[in-house]
Amino acid sequence: MPSQPAPERVLQRLDWHVVRRLDGLLQGEYRSLFRGPGVDLAGLRQYQPGDDVRYIDWNVTARTTEPYIRQYHEDREITAWFLLDLSPSVDFGTVGDGRLKRTVLVDFVTTLARVLTRRGNRIGAIVDGGEGRRTIPVASGKTAVLRLTDELLHEPMRAHTPATDLAGLLEAGVRTIRRRSLVVIVSDFISTPGWERHLHLLDQRHELLAVRLVDPRERELPDVGIVLVQDAETGEQLEIDTGDRRFRERFAAAALARDAELEAAFGRSGVEVASISTDDDLVRSIVRLATERKRRRAVPA
After folding, report:
1. Domain membership flag for residue 228
2. pTM for the whole structure
3. Does the residue 245 lie in any domain?
4. Does residue 137 form part of some domain?
5. Which residues pair with 213 in a beta bridge?
6. Which among 88, 138, 156, 288 is least buried, having the fewest CB atoms inside 10 angstroms?
7. One domain for residues 130 and 160
């Protein structure tokens, strides 16, 4: 019997080891991840603490001098778009069996696509490999998941490219996605500055889920002696002494500063981001993401 194509094997593995466990743990609470508010206005009610301020009706609020929010009928079906950063920096991973950020991205996206399409929703994607991007048209069903997974598996790893400009991927999302959708952005957000404005625009127009890929060794170096490191984006190589305690401290301080800059950028865009690490269990990561998202962003019925 011929072996299954690679996308089939990936999906079968995730169905067995991830999706089944999620079904048991979330027990139908997928709405905490995928709310999909519809476009049909159901009515208005007075604002209550904790309501999403994006749904305030400013015209009614101005007339009554009391804040009111719009309530919508929920769509039975969701259109979901994945904006995926596969630039060279995601080909990094140091934990255990060398699990890359790219591997985490493929597993996470395939899992979400599978969960979505099982409920009749449609998915599409814009994939940026660092040297151009391509669009995978919206479709539904298992075939759509397999096509997306196949595209991700066959996206080549590049030795180096010009510095990643995440703004281009996000701007493509702004231009391409016209109807209100669930937009899932997956990236390590290692990029030249200036992408916050496009992220803010996507958040204003769509239901947004931003996921940052991280690896523990991006924040802390182990003492393993002299090593040769290479910048994944530029290809530049440098020999460093990880046995130098002061160097490790400077590295950790630089990582903290980078995290602070990213946090400030997300703050300027008004978007909350969830992180998934290469040393995380994917099921626990998704459950944590769903729990935090439900707490922070659920709109009262």
Report:
1. no
2. 0.79
3. no
4. yes
5. 276
6. 156
7. yes
Asked if 148 and 51 sit in the same domain, the reply is: no
Do 191 and 59 belong together in one domain? no
Q: Which domain holds residue 65?
A: 37-74
Of the pLDDT bands very low, low, confident and very high (cuts 50, 70, 90), residue 222 is low
**For residue 222, is it within any domain?**
no
pLDDT in tens, 64-85: 888 887 766 555 578 999 999 9
Burial class of residue 78, CB neighbours in 10 A (0-12, 13-18, 19+): buried
The reply to whether 16 and 120 lie within a common domain is: yes
**215, 221 in Cβ contact below 8 A?**
no
The answer to whether residues 42 and 16 belong to one domain is no
Task: Of 72-76, 100-104, 154-158, 214-218, give the lowest mean pLDDT range.
Answer: 72-76
Asked if residue 184 and residue 163 are part of one domain, the reply reads yes
Residue 113 sits in a domain whose CATH number is: 3.40.50.410
Both tokens of 88, joined, read 């060279």
pLDDT at 40 over 60: no
pLDDT of residue 39: 46
Residues 131, 173 within the same domain = yes
